[in-house]
Amino acid sequence: MSKQNHDTMDEQNFRNKIDFLDGAERRRLLPPEEILNILPIEKSHTILDAGAGSGYLTVPAAKLVNGAVYALDMDARMLDVIDEKARAENITNIKLVPGSIDDIPLPEESADIVLASLILHEVRPLSRVLQQIRRVLKEDGHFLCLEYEKEEGTVPGPPMHIRIHSSEMEQELANAGFHAVQKVYPGKSIYIITAIKTAVQVR
């Protein structure tokens, strides 16, 4: 395959991913405003969207606060998509952060809220990522984790062997120094766990 054909295919794959992330079916099953409404978001809050993708949660979150909303993603093209959306809606409080969720390039206790939507099943080890999220969260800050349930016959998504069962996620959160406060199922086999950073981390 020539480089030109490879680049064309890569661009098409990227566009297909954007279409999935921003698709009408996803918005019907997982309305971003309803997801964010689970959290006690205040106007003064600073938010980190870890693994922001196309900005599915970043953009609506930025409309809820006056503080910064950090969009963290490894793919510069995703950050470009978010930037385009922000410019189109004249949103000025989104800060684009190139980087990895397992080594978040933000200071300690720099966010009131951290969001991780359909990203944690892709990272290993999970414990390191949760420690990074805890590090950048302020004490008593809230973390929202949205993931695929690990059950047979569930919605299409990542392979079963890389999914994280909700009970396993709750244990991982507890080990990392979080107190889970709520677990809901907004769609078939999709769960949301919200947790608070506790003062003492379990070792």
TrEMBL record:
* Annotated protein name in UniProt: Methylase involved in ubiquinone/menaquinone biosynthesis
Q: Any keyword Transmembrane?
A: no
Family annotation (InterPro entries): Methyltransf_11 (IPR013216), SAM-dependent_MTases_sf (IPR029063)
| Annotated ranges, domain Methyltransferase type | 48-145
Q: Taxonomically, what lineage is the organism?
A: Bacteria, Bacillati, Bacillota, Clostridia, Eubacteriales
Query: What organism does the record attribute this protein to?
Result: Ruminiclostridium cellobioparum subsp. termitidis CT1112
**Molecular function GO labels:** S-adenosylmethionine-dependent methyltransferase activity
Organism domain of life: Bacteria
Could you list this entry's UniProt keywords, alphabetically sorted.
Methyltransferase, Transferase, Ubiquinone
Pfam families the UniProt entry points to: Methyltransf_11
Does Methyltransferase show up as a keyword for this record? yes
Biological process (GO) annotations?
A: methylation
* Gene3D superfamilies membership: Vaccinia Virus protein VP39
